[in-house]
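Retro notes, structure queue

What went well: the backlog is down to a handful. What didn't: a couple of records were mislabeled last round, so from now on we paste the full input next to the output in the thread. Example, using Glycosyltransferase 2-like domain-containing protein from Paenibacillus oryzae:
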Amino acid sequence: MTLFITPELAARFQQFGRDTYIQSGGYFNSPEQIAIGNGVFMRSPYQFDVMPSVKEPPVISVDDGCQINLGLRIKAKNRVRLERNVLIGPHVCISDEVDLKLDLIRDEFIPGINAGEAGGQVVIGEGAWIGANAIIQGNVRIGNGSIVKANSVVLSHVPDYCAVSGCPAKIVQIYEPSSSSWIDVSSPEQAAELLSARRLNPLLSICIPTYNRANHLEHCLDSIYSQIGNNELFEVIVSDNASTDATPEIAQRYAARYSNMKYIRNAKNIGADPNIFQVMKLARGKFVKIQGDDDFYVEGTLYPLLNVVHSHGDCGVIHIYVRNGDGRIWTGEGMSAYLEATSIYATFITSTILRRDELEKIKTPDLFLQSSFNQLYLQYAIMENNPRFCVMNSCMFTYAGISSDAYNFGEVVLRSYQSILQHFVGRGLTMDDFLKEKKRTLYNYAIPWFRQIITTKMIADTDRFEEIYSELYRDEPYYEDALAIIASVRNSQP
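Corresponding output:
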């Protein structure tokens, strides 16, 4: 007995992904107009009907990671799409045609159209859950992360992160970012009020300082908006440091297209670190994430990141540890544990997420503003008040790999880093923590990176590296050994 569909049938689909398993015992009409992504599981029985259409395939799309229970029926004349990681309960019916439409906010039926003839489509957003026996019909979008409760009939759009129920379906719960909770809704007026307030208080602000990197900024914004669209749980802020290239045109184009983006332009270049500081202060989100304009999100990573932020709302600091991609998410407490977990990689601005209300408690947030590592200071300053942190192991970025001579390598990697850590000795870090990290950073990061700069002729300022090293490490027992290594690296320069 065959448990899953045959390879011959799978080959007929417009797309059939890796690690996808569809039980036999269902029906596909015109599989050539159906696309199935990676990691999909579908129980039988099921029925996919593609109606006569002039549309280019795929007419029905089931994206990566969708999990589909038994009894799903889809009828599509124009488009039906299940985006990533949608969960479908048993005996769900989906069609892009209907004769009535329901306005969920005003709670009333209004004259409908035949959505199939008018070019309508059903889109079920990423991470949505569709309960057992639900019916979805017409020109409908179910928002990202939304829930359609069992036995509901949905005939109109459902906003992101809302729960609907009933026949016809009404909004019964709305996710509220500041409290990270689902609020019960008793009336359409309350729903409209909560949705309006949510637009002003997103869950995550992505803050991008930029200067004269128009092409990289466009790539960065595309990597964000190709995943989130107008999702109001996100806010994107670009602070342009008086760029002289095409940065204003690119940023303004995205700001005009997406309501959750804000673009500001400085009248003059205020410097890199002040611009980072400025864009963070503009954030309205519960959490503030700094983003390098030359760092780009891997597809399918922003909603998992949003879930981590939602699930760890009690943490003052969240760090994305990009050197380990095993997907582990874990929490800890205290500066010593955080230093052990993150080391100098906590200075990477794109890995830094800070809880805004904790950030606002810091009395001197600009204390190390000229160090190039003020973002590191902010993390440890937050942990003086809230010691809880979260680490997310994820290789979720690609990089333009821009090197720079805008700062001196030794001054920043050795002096600035150690100055900030020393500031917290006796305030959460011990001297043993500091001395251990001082040695670890030298051998595991500073010397290897110094060698990389020298051997590949990277654009970087290594002047006085030996002088700064000697000043900071002269009293350490390993001083002479490390100095010999540094000298050999320097002498290997052609």
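Agreed that this is the format going forward. Reviewer comment attached to the example: The chain is about 30% helix and 25% strand.
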